[in-house]
Amino acid sequence: MLQEFKEHLNNQFPYLQNEKLLIAISGGIDSVVLAHLCAQLQIDFALAHCNFKLRGKESDDDQKFVVALANQFNKEVYTISFTTEEHAKKHGQSIQVAARALRYQWFQELLEEHQLKYVLTAHNTNDNLETFIINLTRGSGLEGFTGIPSMNKNIIRPLLAFSRDQIMMYAIKNGIEWREDRSNASLKYVRNKVRHKILPVLQDVNPNILDSFKKTLDHLNESQNIIDTEIQKISKNIITEDNTGIFRLNIDKLLQLPYPKAYLYQILKKYEFTEWNDIENLLTAQSGKQVFSKEYRLLKDRHFLILTKTNTKDSENSVYEIHETVDKIEVPISLHFQVSKEKNLKSRVDILVDKDLLNFPLRVRKWGYGDYICPIGMQGTKKLSQLFKDRKLSLIDKENTWLLTDADDTIIWVIGMRQDRRFSVSKETKNILKITTY
Length: 438
What we know:
By secondary structure, this protein is of the alpha+beta class. It folds into 3 domains: 2-205, Rossmann fold; 233-309, Uridine Diphospho-n-acetylenolpyruvylglucosamine Reductase, domain 3; 318-437, Phenylalanyl-tRNA Synthetase, Chain B, domain 3 (3-Layer(bba) Sandwich), CATH 3.50.40.10. The chain has helices spanning 2-12, 29-40, 57-73, 84-91, 95-113, 125-138, 164-173, 190-205, 209-238, 251-255, 260-268, 276-282, 313-317, 384-390, 395-399; strands at 21-24, 45-51, 77-81, 119-120, 151-152, 155-156, 239-241, 247-250, 290-292, 296-301, 304-309, 320-322, 328-329, 335-340, 350-354, 362-366, 372-373, 382-383, 402-405, 411-414, 418-419, 432-437. Strands 3-2-1-4-6-5 form a 6-stranded mixed beta sheet. It is elongated and about 95 Å long.
């Protein structure tokens, strides 16, 4: 196996040879064999071990074993302990999901702190097949059946090409010791049910199931690559992005495609939406309907689906003060203030105001229902909600609109859109202030 592993690294990950790597090690057979293989090939590495405090003394003994192994290799070892159960309860997660999140976050911290490039994990072919079956039971798109990626950003999985039996045989042949995690035998975990109940049946039906599975993965990944290429080409025609990072998907153009639902799924899957029936319903819903993922929002606006990151309550409720001595701000929006001699200006990016009419400090805030202005060129007042309606602004456009007010919260400018006449320049104005957004 050592020679096969060496050839696999040379073919798939040749750049690892000149790097110092971080090996994630539990003390179990897979990660211990990975460390031994790397040591045999004289690869520069350090070990990283997480003690999840889930098995009492056994967890502590795993940590001691890994530290001793690092000393045997004369390698650095980093260890950390987590109160995993407490973290899982606090975040409403399963123990396994919590443990995964904790360890991968810590790995990234180690990479940055010690200036390392890659983390090696010991997932093998059996793990890949187990994941495939789990995704099958839960329902998945094609990407759920393309397997665990051998490389995901700075996470490398060099043992994916090897089976659990190959790893076991190498360990026994070379007298390698490892730690057994008794929880791996517990059937309360879905993965263990697949491992101990389902895989043996599949191997009985087809003793070469792992080889067949590898070929299937190759075919599925090729199919996914074709889909990705097609989606990239189609996206150029139906998706536009503005300078604020907001995506607009043209519904009419999408519906002209064959299998529009499939295209919609492929385009949006990376944004981690889960309510796909609701997303599909957006295509025919009224404007204003929304669907949320953890970090993103999809909004129906007339003939478009608009994708944007979800706003935080802090940014929505924040008020930013601008004192008289300030000549420029960059947050939350770029504004520049300068004395001017101009008295006529027609532009959406700047306005002229009578400085003597301003009550400082000025303020920048988001709009709210009930806000109104006295627009230049119009009699009376106008509610901002009506102004936005007249301009056919989407909900997201409204949320991204900022107001400039004085200290009394009287609106001076709906920034980039409409100026209030109460602060406008007149023949009697002596001090003109030019305010520009850019």
